[in-house]
Amino acid sequence: MSETRVALELDDIQRGVLSPRPTPYAATYLVFRVDNRAHGRELMRRASAGVTSAADSVSPQQTWVSVAVTCRGLEALGVPSASLETFAWEFRQGMAARARALGDDGESSPEHWEAPLGTPDVHVVLAAVAPDVAGLEAAVDRASLAYDQLTGVTPIWRQDCYALPTEAEHFGYRDGVSNPAIEGSGIAGSNRLEAPLKAGEFVCGYRDEIGGIQLPQPEVLGHNGSYAIFRKLHQDVAAFRSYLRQAATGPEDEELLAAKIMGRWRSGAPLALSPQHDDPALGADPGRRNTFRYAREDPAGFITPGGCHIRRANPRDASVAGEVRLHRMIRRGAVYGPPLPDGDLEDDGVDRGLMFTFIGAHPGRQFEFVQSLWMNDGVFFGAGAAKDPITGSHDGSGRFTIPWRPVRRRLPPLTRFVITRGGEYCFLPGLRALRWLGDLGD
To answer: Which residues cross the membrane (predicted)?
Structure first.
C-alpha cells in the first residue's frame, strides 16, 4: 500500500500523536483523578473543543494540548468492561503491574515511584507544548477552562519540562534525532533510507505492517486513537560523568567512549557517518544525521557497536531477532530539572531527568518488546544478558564491550544511570472519541 493511498483522518487525530515538537520548547504534564463520573465526562467534552488535530500539523502555530486517558480513567468515565477488554492487555494492566517486564526493579521499582504515579488515581493526563514558557503557561491557562469548577475532577500531579535550542538532554547528547515516516501523515521521517511505515503501526483503525488492524471497541472510541506511554526517568548525571572519566584514558578518549556507548557523538553526529571524530555540523543537520544503515557497512559493529543505545533502540536493517519494522515507535523526550554544572562529578541532590513518551498502536510488540528484549537483554545480537549501557537496569555486574581491533575493549562494570520515577500506560482518543466519552450515559 503506497503512502498516497492511505487516507488518514488527520482532522480526528490529536496533533500530539504525529507532530514533531518545536525547538526549543516548553512542556508540561498534568495528571487528574476523576471522582465524579459526570464531571469527568464534562472534562472530556470540554477537552474535545481545546485539543488541536493533526490536520494543523503544518500550521505555523506551535502550541497544542493533548489529552490521554488511562484504563482506570476509562472505568471512572463509565466505559463498559466489555469495551475495556478490547484494548491492549498491557494498557489494561497499567505500568506498575508491568514493572518486572520493563526492568523496573530496585530503585526503579513502583514502591519507590513518585506519588501518585503508578497508582489507580491516575485517570487523565493532559500534556501541553509551546515554543516557550510564556506560551506554555498561556496554553495551560486556556486548558484550565476545561476543568475549572469541575469539583469532581482533581489535579493531582504536574511535571514541567523543556527542550533547549541544542536539543541536548542531561547526559549531553542531542535528543529527538530519529523519527519514523508514517504513511498518510504528510510528515517526512528523519531517515531517508527508511520506507514509510504503515499507519496502523501508530494509529488504531488502519492496517499495520502485517496487514492487521488494531481497533478497540466501540469503533467510535478506538478509531484514530493511539496508545501513549509516559515515563519519568531520573538521570544520575554525576555517576555517568564519573564512569566515563574512570573508563577513559584522557579527555579525547572520554568523548570517544561516550560516542561508542550512545552510537552518536554528543552533537548528534552518528558514528556510522563520522566514525573517527565528532562533526557538529552533521549533528545539527536533520537531513543527514539520521540517514544511514548498518547491515552492509558495519555488520560486526566495529563502527557502531551492536550493544550501543541507538543500535539497540532501532537496529535498522541489521539482522536481529524479530522484524525491525514491527518494533518501530514514535519517541518524544523532554528534560526536567536544571542541568548539573559542566564538569561537576559530585551529585548535588537535585532531581533532573527525562520525561519520555512512546506513541504507537502496539504497546506490547513496540515499547515493551524494545524495553525488555533489546534494552535489557543482549541475546538478540549475541551478547548474552548484556543491557543497554545508558538506560539498562544495571546492578553493577554487567559490562559494555566495544568491538576493537586487534582486541575488543571491555569497559568497567556498569551502574544504573537512569532510574524510573513513575509513569503510566494511556490512550490518546481521537477527537470524535473525546466527544463520545463526554456524551456517555449510564
So the answer is: none
- The sign of the CA dihedral 24, 348, 104, 70 is negative
For residue 382, pLDDT over 90 is answered with no
The 10s digit of each residue's pLDDT in 224-249 is 999 999 999 999 999 999 999 999 99
Classify residue 87 by burial, with Cβ atoms within 10 Å: 0-12, 13-18, 19+: buried
Q: Give CA–CA dist 265/275, Å, rounded.
A: 9
Q: Which three cell numbers stand for residue 28?
A: 508540561
Of 287, 224, 312, nearest to 13 by C-alpha is 224
- Three-point CA angle 33, 369, 416, nearest 5°: 80
- Residue 299 corresponds to which cell in the numbers above? 555488520
pLDDT digits (tens, 9 = 90+) for 405-431: 899 999 999 999 999 999 999 999 999
273, 263 contact by CB (below 8 A): no
What residue has cell string 539520521?
Answer: 290
Helices vs strands, H then E, count in the chain: 14, 10
CB 266 within 8 A of CB 168: yes
| DSSP letter assigned to residue 264 | B
